[in-house]
């Protein structure tokens, strides 16, 4: 094994251990954890705003928001009067389980029914990193093109749910929904 591959394996193993510790914690606390993944601008924050508004007063929710810079997305959630904690990666293209552990300790959310993790906008890097979540949700916007499940099959294979966003543009942009659905299901 090359030194580079060995370092990568060590990083992924450390992440796996941290993710297992998180998973155990979430199971004990009976917290459902959803990891949202998409390209930048696909609509993760907009989906969260709509979802959280519907859940408000019914379930205790919070959001961890990953981004390279700024707290804009976390601020949007906070404007709804809901708890959100920003994880600034400083250039890293994904969140890892240790970042989630640290953020949870600092955020002090308390008992939750659902924790949403809005991962950094990227279809490649977040795929390999387990965050202790119950499942991944991948968002694909029509404006990205219908080739994304072909170009980035790993995230579409690992996600339990795939959501198509910006569907109001169907018929305006060239997008083959059936081809996307076939590719995701294979």
Automatic annotation (TrEMBL):
Origin superkingdom: Bacteria
Keyword terms of this UniProt record: GTP-binding, Hydrolase, Metal-binding, Nickel, Nucleotide-binding, Zinc
GO terms for biological process, alphabetical: protein maturation
Biological source species: Thermoanaerobaculum aquaticum
Listed InterPro entries: CobW/HypB/UreG_nucleotide-bd, Hyd_mat_HypB, P-loop_NTPase
Domain CobW/HypB/UreG nucleotide-binding: 33-185
Name listed for the protein in its UniProt record: Hydrogenase accessory protein HypB
GO MF terms held by the record: GTP binding; GTPase activity; nickel cation binding; zinc ion binding
Sequence similarity: Belongs to the SIMIBI class G3E GTPase family. HypB/HupM subfamily.
Gene (name only): hypB
């Amino acid at each position: 094994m090359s030194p580079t591959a060995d370092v990568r394996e060590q990083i992924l193993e450390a992440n796996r251990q941290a993710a297992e510790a998180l998973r155990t914690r979430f199971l004990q606390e009976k917290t459902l954890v959803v990891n949202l993944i998409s390209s930048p601008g696909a609509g993760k924050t907009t989906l969260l705003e709509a979802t959280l508004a519907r859940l408000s007063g019914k379930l205790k929710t919070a959001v961890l928001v990953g981004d390279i810079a700024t707290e804009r997305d976390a601020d949007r959630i906070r404007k709804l009067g809901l708890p959100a904690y920003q994880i600034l990666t400083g250039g890293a293209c994904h969140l890892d389980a240790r970042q989630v552990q640290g953020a949870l300790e600092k955020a002090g959310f308390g008992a939750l029914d659902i924790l949403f993790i809005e991962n950094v906008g990227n279809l490649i890097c977040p795929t390999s990193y387990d965050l202790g979540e119950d499942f991944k949700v991948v968002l694909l916007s029509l404006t990205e093109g219908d080739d994304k499940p072909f170009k980035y099959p790993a995230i579409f294979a690992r996600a339990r749910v795939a959501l198509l966003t910006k569907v109001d543009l169907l018929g305006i942009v060239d997008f083959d929904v059936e081809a996307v659905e076939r590719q995701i299901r294979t």
